[in-house]
TrEMBL record, chain A:
Gene3D superfamilies: MetI-like. It comes from Micromonospora thermarum. Coiled coil: none annotated. Pfam families: BPD_transp_1. This is ABC transporter permease. Belongs to the binding-protein-dependent transport system permease family. CysTW subfamily.
Amino acid sequence: MTALAHVPTGQSTASSPPPAARSGRYRFLPYLLLLPGAAWLFLFFALPLLQLAAASLYDPTGSLATGYAMTWAFSNYPEALQAYWPQFSRSFLYAGIALVLALLMGYPLAYAIAQKAGRWKNLLLVCVVAPMFTSFLVRTLAWKTILSDNGWVVGLLRDIHLLGPDGRLLATPVAVILGLTYNFLPFLVLPLYASLERLDYRLLEAASDLYASPVQTFRKVTLPLSMPGLIAGTLLFFIPATGDYINAELLGTPNEYMIGNVIDSAFLVRLDYPQGAALSFLLMAAILAVVFVYLRKAGTDEVL
Amino acid sequence: MTAMGHDAPAGDLRLADLTKRFGAFTAVDDLSLTIPQGSFFALLGASGCGKTTTLRMIAGLEEPTSGQVLLGDRDIARLRPYKRPVNTVFQSYALFPHLDIAENVAFGLRRRGIRKVDDQVQRMLSLVQLDGYGRRRPAQLSGGQQQRVALARALINHPQVLLLDEPLGALDLKLRRQMQIELKRIQTEVGITFVHVTHDQEEAMTMADTVAVMNAGRIEQLGAPADIYEFPATAFVANFLGQSNLLAGEAAGSAGREVPVSAHGGRFSVPAGRARADRGPVYLGVRPEKLHLAGSADQVPSGHQHVDGVVTDASYVGVSTQYLLRTSWGSELSVFVANSGTHGQVPVGTRAVAYWDPRHAFLLRREPGEDDRTTPVLDEPVGASS
């Protein structure tokens, strides 16, 4: 390219076409590379989503046998919400409590692995990820055994009178929340670890040198600098936890059912497609609203 | 900057029997020294000599194994760093990337609950010549500017002692020279005790009132830069602070005001006042710029002493020409001749004589068996073989 600078004046630079030709030939390359992914997304996400949106507006009196008529039945939404608002709010409550528990465990864990673990760092990371090597379902079933009425956990809690003689964990909100916390913890820990790992300990020394107590150092340096990981981690935890139905199904009773269980049964048991679709959209909208508010609050340019 | 007062009665900084061990390794070995209030003090040494560990113990970032750090009459050795009236300019600057320049500078004030910081921050930024940079982020500043922010961030707290850990190490040569002058100006202006850690002997000599040369966790010599340079206490100092030609010799006690020395078959003498040792194995030392070249022994002025040799190398470096002179016993002497225009260049291969005024020579203790040290020792204390 520098050769162009030496072309004598008067001679046309148009006689050196390579750069222009190159950008012409490869101009569409990025779009070409996007194509497979975009096609996949369109076929298996955008189209089904549209289908789902349409289904949520079908005539609710139809059935799989008789077929559904498109009647733009917007009333499906308020009716679904009215019928299932307890499960709806329960989903957010359980996921919220689980998130708080996961933060209390996950932040110190991620911090310790990132800043204090030294040569144990990789081993500890493997320990965080290892449960993911077995299926979600199997892990949740294992919790069923751990929390069962004649298991050692319940036995111990009864012995120290934290539980009454007939007290139990399984089939209670406690079990469901514990299950959610456990199952989604790695999604919180890993992004947090990634940003705490980048945290320069010399900044902590500098803060300490500049009269910041350990608590102030955490609030003014560690926390703000780990914000990107904290935001990513909480979202990766909260979104799937809110929509989850396995934990409530296996560790709870219908009294602990979350909105995921209702959607599951609407599609697979009651075969009420319009209601299932409407509930799915309501859940999506609610999560989007929560995330939007959260990002507006936490995701200022101070931290991202 | 007369408005800058001290918040608490300050005092001298004293290190008493300070020791730091990491496992079996002794980083700082029973160090004792006094740094007078308001002085510019440099800890000079090669990497791994314990100078940074010493600094970190003063800052509170490292806990001493034993000994005291006294500020005035108060032992602060076991205080947490945030309880000490001491601030640090870190080698990496360690500016907070999520805060703008003004908030970086205000950090220390805010942590102590001071709310009105704007005026002080403005004054600090103009002291380090960064007016108008308050709203920028550290990443938007050049290395030299970041260095000045780090300085302002520490100075705004009016510490009793300001610690500087190789603060100019990351800057290029020209900027470093500029910042040396700048730092010296600021130190004079604020009157705070500066303790400056560096491995750059020129930097230490340019800025500091007092230089302590450290080696292997101990202080080899402490004093004004000129005193240390003109009359080093040990062979390590003689070659760490500038270069020296050290000839291995034997002394047999002082004779009147002179100490006679025999070295490599020649007889020399050094004034008794410039002898660190006057008996047994010694080094006869002469700085390269104190050596002069002559064509033959009869051109040597009276009262001077000389060594014969052959010029083996001549490096023209502008202000001077640096010659290597191979002696009859095989060592090479370093001779710097100023290019003042009065002498022509001496070609490589010519026989020549290096001579010096005995008042410029010095005598150091030598471990038996150690040979000449005539090549410059740059970073590590390596005994040169000949």
